[in-house]
Amino acid sequence: MAGGKTCDTVTSVVLRVDTDEDVSGWGEVCPIPHYLPAYAEGVRPALEYLAPVLIGADPVGPEALMARADAWLQGHPYAKSALDIALWDITGQAAGLPLYALLGGRQAADMALYHSITCVAPEEMARIARDAQRSGITQFQVKLGADNDWQADAARLRLVREAVGDGPLVYGDWNCGATRLDATRVGRAVAGLDVMLEQPCATLEDCAAVRAATGLPMKIDENGHDTASLLRAHELGCMDAVALKLSKFGGLSASRRARDLCLHLGPRMCIEDTWGSDITTAALLHLAAATPERALLNTCDLSGYVAPRLAPGAPTRRDGRIAPPDGPGLGVAPDPDTLGQPVAIID
Ligand code: MG
Q1: Rounded distance, CA 251 to CA 29, Å?
Q2: Of 43, 75, 193, 230, which is the most buried if we count CB atoms within 10 A?
Q3: CA dist 248 to 28, 244, 342, Å?
Q4: Does the active-site annotation cover 80?
């Protein structure tokens, strides 16, 4: 990513919430190092701290219990995301319904995926884009800024745009790593092309300035993480699209509220998460499938980028698209042998 940030491995925290009714729910959160105010080692102590609120509480109807959790421990949305997903899994199983039915109802048979292209040499990125396009992908995220060379970034956008031809969506993502000056130079260099810019700078105000100077549509990611920041991005006129990552907001409950606000405000939504395997992927697919197709930009098969797979039989990409699981709740459960023994039990 921008600034030369890399990560070869990530730690994913998998949570199982047991009830006294023989129903268990699964949750997962996988923060990327150095990406957001979140770290994997912070999840377990936050959940331990919440134990007095959780033990003995009714898990059905997650928002009531999450409100109590928010009153007990403010913030820490990433840690709460795993908990909230597990409560939704229990609620769906208790209802005998897949989560998409509880999150707004199935609005699409399947959803478009984007393919993220790591920031390497422009020609190599164009080759990766062509390969992904052959597999059915129609939306391409071009990572920018790894070498601090604005002309290379302009070439990355130009070559990927050329490689995939007219029609597919191409957007360049700096992950907050660009200055206003460099992002504006890149944007003006490719201003005649059909491209979108994503989160060039670290603040919404700078992103809005880049949008105004380049005339290019803008996707907000890192700076859109709660109701107030979404409203501010909308006010500034820089939110043509937005990434709703479950763990930025605090799980499915808070992301559903963000989704509903965005239906009103109007940006196209990428519904995804920071990272993770089959549990978080299933959760985000349910929310994406329950979102009107006209408002959904794309979604992400996070589990397809990492190994090992936690849940054999969980959804995988097909012709650039993906569908949610159909079983009750999340509709996926991890393979116990892959997980191994729990690192902690909170009771
Ligand atoms: Mg992004």
Answers
A1: 9
A2: 43
A3: 13, 8, 25
A4: no
Q: 223 alpha carbon to ligand 1 midpoint, in Å?
A: 10
Q: What is the largest CA-CA distance in the chain?
A: 61
Q: What is the mean pLDDT of the chain?
A: 96
CATH class of 102-322: alpha beta
Say if residues 77 and 9 touch (Cβ distance below 8 Å): no
Domains of the chain by residue range = 2-97+335-339, 102-322
- Higher-confidence position of 5 and 125: 125
| Sign, CA torsion 276/281/283/285 | positive
- Point out the catalytic residue in the list 80, 143, 219, 248: 143
Ligand 1 center to 220 CA (angstroms): 8
Query: Does residue 200 surpass a pLDDT of 90?
Result: yes
Catalytic position from the list 80, 219, 245, 248: 245
CB burial of 184-219 (b: ≥16 within 10 Å; e: otherwise) equals bbbbebbeeeebbbbbbbbebebbbbbbebbebbbb
Alpha carbon of residue 31 to chain centroid: 11
Cα(175) to centroid(ligand 1), Å:
6
Q: DSSP labels for 215-249? A: ---EEE-TT--SHHHHHHHHHHT--SEEEEEHHHH
User: Ligand 1 center to residue 219 CA distance, Å?
Assistant: 8
Separation of CA 65 and ligand 1 centre (Å): 30
User: Is-catalytic flag, 245?
Assistant: yes
**Can you tell me which residue has the tokens 């609120």?**
53
β-strand partners of 116? 141
Please state, in angstroms and rounded to a whole number, the distance separating the CA atoms of residues 18 and 55.
10
**Which one-letter DSSP state was computed for residue 45?**
H
CA of 6 to the centre of ligand 1 (A): 14
Q: Over 90: is that where the pLDDT of 337 sits?
A: yes
Q: Quick check: 269 and 275 in contact, CB under 8 A?
A: no
pTM flag (> 0.90): yes
Confidence of residue 114 (pLDDT cuts 50, 70, 90): very high
Residue written as token pair 């080692």: 41
Amino acid at 168: P
